[in-house]
Specification:
By secondary structure, this protein is an alpha/beta fold. It folds into 2 domains: about 120 residues, Response regulator (Rossmann fold, 3-Layer(aba) Sandwich); about 90 residues, Winged helix-like DNA-binding domain superfamily/Winged helix DNA-binding domain (Arc Repressor Mutant, subunit A, Orthogonal Bundle). The chain has 8 helices and 11 strands. A hairpin with a 2-residue loop joins strand 7 and strand 8. GO terms for molecular function: phosphorelay response regulator activity; transcription cis-regulatory region binding. InterPro entries: CheY-like_superfamily (IPR011006), OmpR/PhoB-type_DNA-bd (IPR001867), Sig_transdc_resp-reg_receiver (IPR001789), WalR-like (IPR039420), WH-like_DNA-bd_sf (IPR036388). Pfam families: Response_reg, Trans_reg_C. This is DNA-binding response OmpR family regulator.
Length: about 240
């Protein structure tokens, strides 16, 4: 049975969602405010979160931001705000899908099932990867090969994006969009130098110039090498 966290303060909608998801074979846990939603998120570790934007205590944007510090959990935003700017903001902030209210039951279930089908096992902050990396969100640092590397906010977000997509090449433009919120692709040199600083910090933490899990894929972008596979490219290499 798949556990789904519903963070929604509308009691009637919550009841409808609980009934619909339970009948579809999911276990539903619920919070009616942002703070309790975050508490349940880390305590229960669900497979998916349905998140309202207009929440008391912490709004949905704040919950989404903190969720992305904790995990790469699939998040479906539910909101009465249907403006394109809100949809774009949600997706850029790390939401996986967006469904304006009111919505049909069949569409909701289809989106839930699609997210669950295509999602990899969720990685949680504090988890150790099999190659010796652990992200520490409250300190904005990474433990690499048993030694802590203190990172800037940009460096931490950069490593977080690459780790979530371990083994896959992420282009320079994608990194600008996800880390710097620069969808226009301006300032591409920022990516090159941020990766350079990040790689040096990880090597210094490990005390080994060869201990570098990041790879520059010339002409494409960068990737975090799953299980340390392959050889890292030159520090200055990057996509076009």
């Amino acid at each position: 049975m798949t556990r789904v966290l519903v963070v929604e303060d509308d009691a009637d909608l919550t009841l409808a969602l609980r009934t619909l998801l339970t009948q579809a074979g999911h276990e539903v846990i619920h919070a009616d405010n942002g703070r309790d939603g975050l508490r349940l998120l880390f305590a229960e570790r669900p497979a998916l979160m349905l998140l309202d934007i207009g929440l008391p205590q912490l709004n949905g944007w704040e919950v989404l931001e903190r969720t992305r510090d904790l995990s790469d959990l699939p998040v479906l935003l539910l909101t009465a705000r249907g403006a394109e700017s809100d949809r774009v903001r949600g997706l850029r902030a790390g939401a996986d899908d967006y469904l304006p209210k009111p919505f049909g039951n069949d569409e909701l279930l289809a989106r839930v099932e699609a997210l669950l089908r295509r999602s990899a096992p969720t990685r949680w902050a504090g988890d150790s990867f099999d190659d010796g990396l652990r992200l520490v969100p409250d300190r904005r640092s990474a433990v690499w090969q048993g030694h802590e590397a203190r990172l800037s906010d940009i460096e931490y977000r950069l490593l977080q994006v690459l780790v979530r997509n371990r083994g896959r090449v992420i282009t320079t433009d994608q990194l600008l969009d996800r880390v710097w919120d620069d969808p226009e692709g301006r300032g591409r040199e920022r990516v090159k130098f941020a990766v350079l600083r990040l790689r040096r910090k990880l090597r210094q933490a490990a005390g080994d110039e060869a201990a570098d899990p990041l790879e520059a894929v010339r002409g494409l972008g960068y990737r975090y090498r799953a299980n340390g596979e392959g050889e890292a490219g030159p520090e200055g290499a990057e996509g076009p």
